[in-house]
Write a structure and sequence with these properties.
Helix content: 25-40%
Distance between the termini: 54 Å
Low-confidence stretches: 5-13, 15-20
Strand content: 25-35%
Number of domains: 1
Number of helices: 3
Shape: globular
Radius of gyration: 21 Å
Structural class: alpha+beta
Strand order of the largest sheet: 1-2-3-4-5-6
């Protein structure tokens, strides 16, 4: 009977030690910016790494934008499309030697298609993320860059 109790205690102790560490990359989250927190809930369209700038980005889209990115050949998204490019600084992964993971968010850029001819760009930077004013030329370049990204090929 003592052996059963001892074995049960050791099993519970082992389970408790496994559940002790919860791995969550809080620095990469949008926790400090509730007004734009929904961008990470879109569908992933593609991702990219800029080794020179030491950043990594993911392009998300709502259902309309994701479908268009995967099926259409042009860069003109239909009305109702919303694309979000989230860029993080890279940091070393302490659990996997040589790997990088997202660090703090550097920027969030949201492209909204009100209609085929009416496009809105919202650009957030800083800590906490703040809406940044963008001149028309820079906005056009950024919109062109974001909408020019092709969807990753999925198996």
């Amino acid at each position: 009977m003592k052996d059963i109790i001892r074995l049960s205690f050791l099993s519970l102790l082992g389970l408790a030690s496994c559940a002790k560490e919860h791995l969550y990359n809080e620095s990469a989250s949008l926790a400090d910016s509730t007004k734009i927190s929904g961008v990470l809930e879109g569908k992933v369209i593609t991702s990219m790494v800029d080794k020179k700038e030491k950043t990594m980005s993911t392009l998300y889209g709502n259902d309309i934008a994701a479908e268009h990115a995967r099926s259409a050949k042009d860069e003109k998204y239909p009305a109702g499309s919303e694309l979000s490019l989230v860029t993080w600084s890279q940091k070393d992964d302490i659990h996997w030697y040589g790997a990088n993971i997202p660090g703090e968010i550097k920027s969030v850029e949201i492209v909204k298609y009100v209609s085929a001819d009416s496009i809105i760009l919202e650009s957030y930077e800083g800590k906490p993320l703040q809406l940044k004013k963008t001149d028309i030329e820079s906005a056009d370049k950024k919109i062109g860059y974001i909408t020019g990204q092709r969807a990753a090929v999925l198996p």
